[in-house]
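Exercise 7.
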Amino acid sequence: MTVHTPTRHVRRLSRKRRAALGAISLACCCAVAAALPSGASASPEAPRSADKKASAAAFADEFDGPAGSPVDSSKWQTETGDNVNNHERQYYTPGGDNAQLDGEGHLVITARKENPSNYQCWYGTCEYTSSRLNTANTFTQTYGHVEAKMKIPRGQGMWPAFWMLGADMGDVGWPASGEIDIMENVGFEPGTVHGTLHGPGYSGGGGIGADYSLPGGEDFADDFHTFAVDWAPDSITWSVDGNVFQTRTPADLDGKEWVFDKPFFLILNLAVGGDWPGDPDGGTTFPQELVVDHVRVETDDAAPPA
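Solution. The predicted structure, written as tokens, is:
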């Protein structure tokens, strides 16, 4: 995928069922995802709740603005292109074609089964369009509480994600840059999300992570949910709606290098199809939307952002 940024991006080629793929050149994303071991169910509330008064905003986007407006370009940049590495089916379009504010305090990333601009993908004329946004040139952060409140799409072949990449990606490549997948969902698991770490020696099918499932057979597409990590030196904790479902430390890496004590940037995207989620089928309806209420990054006052 070609992106308008000097940073090369790599995204996940997730799970045992998917082979690890290499990164592509230029300022591009080779989506590489995680092996996602079965994770835990809901457990204690995320630890930050007791420390709210000690936090300070490092980044916030509440997506306020008139309906039809594009995202704030001082906070987000829009990537464009397709992604052969995961065999995704969408073309990420420029500007506000597939990512707009709705006038009610939300960002809406829309996946459509259409291609009015005759975009070309790795498999020929693209069948779908969508959007992918990042903060590579506008915001990076080391440590803190990182969260997004979102309502995800539903349907076979949908693949929404909220994640982070090391800001030194252009210098060291992937997976040495590190990747923190805060939330991934694939449409054939409507009630489950995944959180994963990728780094040198534990990337692609060897990523370190877990999953979280809603109780009672609920689907994540039914309502908004808050997906977060609490990130500290040598520790990252994942939560959904305040429920912690995993914590990872260097002890989980069997001596491999921990690469998560440096600046990272944010990414939001909605992919269509690919090796992990599979392609849309006859039961998948379009358009599908990833609706984002807010993205916030807070840091402890005692530890200013890098």
